[in-house]
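Hello again, I could really use a second opinion on something today. I've been staring at a protein lately and its backbone has me curious. Please have a think about how the structure follows from the sequence. I owe you a coffee for this, so here goes:
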Amino acid sequence: MSVLTSYASASARDSEAPAASNTGLCIFRTDTKAIEVSDGTDYQIYNSDGTALVSTFSGSFDGTDDWIGIGNVSNLNSATNFTISVWFKRAAARQDTLLGGTGSDGIGMYPWSDGNFYVHAGGTNTVNAALPGENQWINAVVTRDASNTKLYLNGSLAATATSSTIPSTAGNSFRIGNYTAFSYDLLGNIDDVAIWDATTLDANNISAIYNSGVPSNLSIDADDYDQSSTLTHWYRLGDHASDTGSGGVADGNTITNIENAANPGTNDGSTINGTPSFSTTVPS
């Protein structure tokens, strides 16, 4: 389960103190997103900014045959505007792919053996930039509009290219851990794959998503992030209630399903290839 962890000001409310039997009580208010903590006489209110999450699990992929199919992301087909965000970690440079749909001229994102990160977003051209390093968690975001396709790494703009036409099948057979057009699979970890499939997020939103290296709560508008209403896909890889594994969600258990947390009950990752597993290696 994901828990809000970022708090701002606190104020005592002596005039509304709970009964002594509530000593040690901690309440999260779903209406105000505040945390209330009681010592039996007084209680403090901590107003959450709603951004940070405690991420408990990621997906671990063996680099051989592990990937998760999430079906057709149909709004990416012939798309004009979209944004895709992914967190990943790999131990060393090699030929890896992270995610993508049908066709080498479609949409795909991957770190490569030359130490660069590449994005296919229509045509055979790519937008690419040098990775910040290896054996560390990296947040990669691609944004696309009619004019420009941009790559952001760890919240900062890394490269820009002129947009190419997006094919009508670009969002079909979309996979996590593999780019359908290629035969290379990631050796490493993936977390919090998110898609805004009709919206080009701006630099302020991208910086807020990176959140100094801690994944943000994308379902809540806070600070510079104001696009929770346009989020259409959010795969948390073990940190959503309906994510399951053989024996339950636990370190090392094989992933059998991941649910789209942006739209619960739909777009489940129920097509599993190989044995991707839950891992407690997470961005932090």
The first strand starts at residue 7 and ends at 12.
